[in-house]
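Q: For a teaching session next week I want to show students how multiple molecules come together into a single three-dimensional assembly. I've collected the sequence lines for a complex. Could you give me the predicted structure tokens for the whole thing so I can convert them for display?
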Amino acid sequence: MELQALIYERIGDKERLLLPRTEERVRSWLANYVTRQSVTALLLDVPKTEYVFRGGEITTKVLEANDVVDLVRAVRGATSLSEHVRLITDEFLPPTADAFDGVDYFVLASRRLADDPPGQIALSRWLEQGGRLWVMLDRTDLDAVAGVLGIAPGFHIVDRTSLTRVRIDGRGLGSRDLESKVRELEQPVDFVRVELGPEFTVLHRVNGWPASFSRTIGRGKVLITTLGMDAWCRPRTADDPRSPFDLIPDVPVLMPAMEYLSQQFQPSAAPIFPSLDLPTKEGDAFAPLVIGDIGYSIVGVSTASMVFGGFLVMLLVLALGLRKWGRLEMLSWIGPVAALSTGLAFVALGEVSRQAVSPTVAVAQRIAVNPQNQELSVTGLLGFYRPNGGPAHIRTTRGGLLELDMSGLEGQTRRMVTTDIDAWHWENLTLPAGARLGRFRSVARTEEPISCVAGFGPNGLQGKLSARACSGLGDILIQAPSRRVFSVRPTTDGAFTIGANDLLSAGQFVADAVLSDHQQKRQAIYRRLLTDPQAARSSDDSVLFAWADPMGVPFDFETELHWVGSALISIPVEFGHTTPDTAVVVPRGFVPFRRILETGPILPTLEGQEAIEEHLRFQLPPSVLPLHVEKARLIAKVEAPSRRFTVSVHTKNGLVKLHSVQSPIDPVLIDIVGDDLLLMDEQGGLNLVIAVSEPPSVDDGQLPKWDIQALELEVVGRTLKR
Amino acid sequence: MLRAMGLILIALAVFLGAASWGRASDEALDSRMYHDPELPSPKIVMALPENPLPLWLVALGRPEADYQCRAALAIVLAHKEGIKGLEAAVEPLLEALARLDSPAGPNSIAPSNQSDSGTGSSPNALVRLAVARALIELDARQTAPQLFQQTQGGDRRLRELIEPALARWTFRPAVPVWLERLRRPDTSAGDLLLAVRGLAALRELKATPFLKELVHSAQASWPTRLEAARALGVIQNSGLEPDARSLVGETGSADVGARLAAAWLLRHHQGEEAIGLLQTLGRDPEPAVDLIALERLLEISSKHVLPVIDSALASPDAKVREIAVETLYREASLERLTLLADKLDDEYSHLRIKARVALHDLAAKPQFRDAIIREGSRILSGQNWRGLEQATILLVQLDHKPAAKRLLQLLVCERPEVSIAAAWGLRRLDVPETLPLVFSHFRSFRGLSDNNATTAKLDQMPPLAVDQQFSHLAQFMGQRRYQPAEATLRRFVPRIMRAALVGQETRAAAIWALGFILEGNADPGLARQLEERLSDIPKGLDPGEDPRVRRMSAITLARMKSKESEETLRRFKLTVKPSLDPVAHACSWAMQQLFGEVPPPPGSVELPSPATFKNWLHVRPESKPARASG
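A: Of course. Below is the structure for the complete assembly, covering every listed component.
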């Protein structure tokens, strides 16, 4: 594929075509087309070197080698990506987030970002819009990280040291990234000891200190590693499998922990914020909302059918009457007149429909809030409606990007002209009358941060929603780690409590009994976002979702417009530690679980045909740990005709059967009481075993299917002193 | 041209740097051939672009945010690279800030058709940040009031950029603002942190009650509490013992955060109670806590570290062990020398070297010298390669000649660090009785004689390590003018040696050694060979002779008094233009030795700065840039 270009010099309003040295007017191959693939960008320091003069011999001494690129290559190799890593050699990053559009994964292993505040902002915005950032803390400064994550990034650097003995501890019982033995390294490996705040989830530890940890920021995710490269990989030997790259046979071998991280943070993994990306704009879940907000619609099928039907009926009646009258020849001019009248009726209907709506811009926004940032990343769908066609002067001087649907404008020569940072406008753009949709992204600023802080107490989850910057909040819900949703009804000051009664039934996302047209559309979007496995969140975070009036968008249409729309806001729930010696109830849904295999934790199997026995580990929320569990209730909804469903628990004396039921029909409620049954592991995990038996006999050899539709744990206990 | 030459030299230097593996493992392992003769070193000057400040100031005055940002950031970069005279940018930068604040400024944002002022991003904010960054980089303290004014707006990023600089500049008008933030319960975590750090830098005593509250607050996260503890420990250098004690508790807190906070509180304390607490914290199972406590104890007096020296020496943390080594050095006694000598075998190279240097320094005191040699010999008789390497260097530096016997054994040690150090040690100890065995070992090199057990062992070693080792041995035989080795050394002169992978370092050393063995006795055949080596410069794809070999060839020609080689030496000697070429310096030295020609002064050579200057504004911004697409 060839990209051709004309280059003009533009001074004021005048422009002059700059011709290439060759005779052609058109410049070709200014950029090469390559098939889209996941891109990893790596920001490194320029290798520090100094000239050393020894005995008349000049030599350079490399003070810090940049072999980290090998590690990044190995990480790509582990996820079957190519070896190509984009090294950023520019001294400054581009000052706009749009420049990072093609980047899927950004690796920060440099201190020079500290000198580039505009670059920090651009990177930070890209992250909040859904980027994935890997910070190698051993190779960067807090100043550089603070520029992206904020001055209080949620961790405190205690000191920097180095290690010659390393054993990376995995993520608890059965994790497959556990290293079996301590590795001794001849060259010390750098290690940054950090104390973490509750915002971060620790993934690996070394000597009790976090070695890798992550958190979501807006729609993006950041991974921070504190350990030098040699701890995460080792040189490839003859005994190892072949390098994934033919041209780089000695790419290092990842240690199990980095193998895990590379799988978890691979750019192609499901995004943290549910994606709405669909093949066509018409299919976008937000499109009905935007079109509905504009109020404009083409003549409906029923109306058109009526007009056509009327035309046919009239023609038939006329034909019958004229035949009876003996003047059938008149049909030769009455027919065309009737057809013309019908056509005029259509034109009139269309014009009425078009003129009934004033020029409008409708927006449906998605806003993923980062509580630490008053700058919000806004993405969404914009509908621009004009009753009359003509030139469109669309511009901005405040950033953002609007990708208006240009279908039907083929052959039109138009330009999008960028004049400065965050300033662009369209030239020679002419749009026909009607509605036109376009995706956009922009930023919005609020006077005060938006946040949702919560903690577990005696009545369940108690919290406070601070969102004074948002007006018209409604249809609020919290999605728990189990993906179940709870309705939230905050008081005027934002306080709320949710318990078992607020749990919404499967498929329900708006609590009201009778839903308005708007609420139905919102519920459809919730359903699309929160249940579609393609769009599901991959983390165990709890997120509050709410609908609100839209934030403004920075685009200028140079015409009087009616602005309408709504915004779907997602706010991560920040859990505060419950004070010691407090009774707590952790509602069902807030205790995620995984199936534990010898190779590590995986998503549990909840349906099948074969008999199964699964070891399930339920992780209690870290904010209530350490906890003395007084009672746990397992709620299971199981469909297993002619099979026995059994629940057991791991105790010091082995497996103890708690409950067993044949062909369960009603929901199974199992109360687990007693210290011997409620044994938690060191990381706050409760371990249960569930089993679904074989059916007694099968005539046709086809085993009936079993299905665990719900499996949730509610925990009652008292917090202990840390 | 000069730049091109410089680049070639750099490429050459990189190659040489890579080739000299092993030599860099320990700076103590010097090579005599590079110092005898000591050739003059020209001064290296970094070439920086001509000061483009006037150009950047034009860009700073342009209405486009893009130009203004780039100009400000270019000033930051230029200052970091050491370009002088950038202080002239302070006033224009301040003017740029003032223009941004003016509602009718050149790039003030036109009102939108919507009322929402919080909509969209602001290029002005980027310019503000870049300009502020430049002023901070230029250390423009006089602009603190204007920068402080900028922090009073709503831009969090400006506060995060400017306030640490204000704290560094001890800008006291910021104190009330920071104190107010400590008082307010709704202060964001970022603003709180900035206030805590700022007040700590200014040692503001009024902040102490708030900081104490933060340190003890169970609601605050540990990162915040630790920051408060650090600040409190800086502001108050006495009286925090009760707070530290309450954090640690009578039986010791299980929480590392609490113990770290306690240690930070006492970071600048002294007095009996504080020392007792610090010693308790210095025995903490967590090395991060030990480190803070021990650093303070060492600052007060190394004597206070002695009660915890055993646990410090056994710590898994190298920095803690380093404090222990420093303490043993400062509080040296005959009994403690054993502990210090044990650290010659530490797993951290810098700690091993520190212990060795400490023992070497202590050996200058007569009461310790014999004991240190005894301890060094003890380690040298062991099997651990780290200890063997350091003990070798120590005993050689102390000129302990009886160690030579053991060094002969270590020539075949499988660890290259040890075998290289042993060869170096034998050269430095210069014991003539070891020469036959050294020569025998030298002849074990594959291709020089019949294969034997030593040849097989040498084959197992990295070739570059063998090269280093044999270079030292060749130099030893040369400095001792060991005639039996002459024929063998001559075999290293040709560029390609049959059936042997001869390293260039060894070849250079062999040629240098021949210069001593044949000193004053010009051998026409050898002189012709050496002239050939000297003249073997790169031609086409042929990289030519190794510069080290060419250099030593010139030196040996002079030592042999080969006056017939004048033409060749004159061809490659220094010109009036300063040069980094070691061969040219060697030829000039040879000409001086042979004909009394005084070489020109070394002068200084300009090399390109390692910085790329890629994104600097190089072109005067005349026209409004426009990028068109679509």
